[in-house]
Amino acid sequence: MPAPATFCRPRLAANTRLAAVPAVGHGCADMMNTDPTSQNRYLTVPELAALLRIKERKVYDLAASGTVPCSKVTGKLLFPEQAVLRWIERGQTGQADTDDARPSVFLGSHDPLLDWALRQSESGIATYFDGSQDGLDRFVAREGLASGLHMFDPATNDWNVASVAAGFAGSPVVLLSFARRQRGLAVHPDMATQITGLADLPGRTVTPRQVGAGTRTLFEHVLREADLLPDTIRMRPVARSETDAVLDVASGEADATFGLAALAQQHKLAFVPLIEERFDLLVSRRAYFEPPFQRFIRFLGSSDFAAHAAALTGYDVSEAGRVRWNG
Question: What would the DSSP string read from start to end of 2-59?
Fold first, then answer.
């Protein structure tokens, strides 16, 4: 898609694949928070209802739909105060909808292929990966130019679009497809014959991700679907990246983690496939057309990127760069 001479940022059409612009010049959880360092305060249903000035029944509806950040501990709904305040902030209206320059930082969920592609493309974009929800919050705060997401919406049986549309409708942002990934149980080789599915997890030691990570939310969802109680699983302290979670298993500290097929293969772990997920990129429209991100986009269309993705287990990058949603 060639850039106009004035270097304007047009609205990007949905369901289309974006080509790189030629270079110009030089260029609701059911598991306790196992993070022992967490200092979050949690709101109860009555407290959140009072804060939002709504009926308690509406709070339950928001929690059931996954609209508001929440945790469920021993049958009681709790709402992390800071996450709720950031959720409220994302819903503000009447603010100037600017598309000013942002720091050259990629936020959100950790993905090993994305991490590699950002370096290999020589984009010069720094990274700060600490989970999908953290990425959204920091993107709202304009702390980065893009965020990696894998947030499942049970109501639509889709990924990322509902979460992004709820907070960014009318904003100068675009949601791009990056990859489909195979996710399941990464299992220590010594436990390969004993853990062959979710039903084998009770009594085993599992390393979870932190609250707010897309992996954590999805793991809790599949446990609910399998009618498994999280209290029956021995939870290790949280890992803050996909790689750290798998390394905990490889070192023998945990029996399993809910991880990526690619990392299980890399660290010679057994793998039980459970789900195919979408990993998408929420991007500032202005940043998309600027040289650092354009170097990254051009690399996504290269043979080097395709070959590396093919060498990894569990990646489908056939839609990389395609627009899934437009603000």
Answer: PPPTT---PPPPTT-BPPPPPP-TT--B-S----TT----EE-HHHHHHHHT--HHHH
Q: How far is C-alpha 327 from the geometric centre of its chain's CA atoms?
A: 19
Q: For the chain, what percent of residues have pLDDT higher than 90?
A: 64
* CATH at 193: 3.40.190.290
Residues 228, 246, single domain; the answer is yes
- Structurally, the chain folds into a number of domains equal to 2
Joined tokens for residue 135: 């990425």
Phi, psi of 214 (to 5 degrees): -60, -35
Enter the pTM of the model: 0.74
pLDDT at 296: 97
Per-residue model confidence as pLDDT tens digits over 149-164: 999 998 889 999 998 9
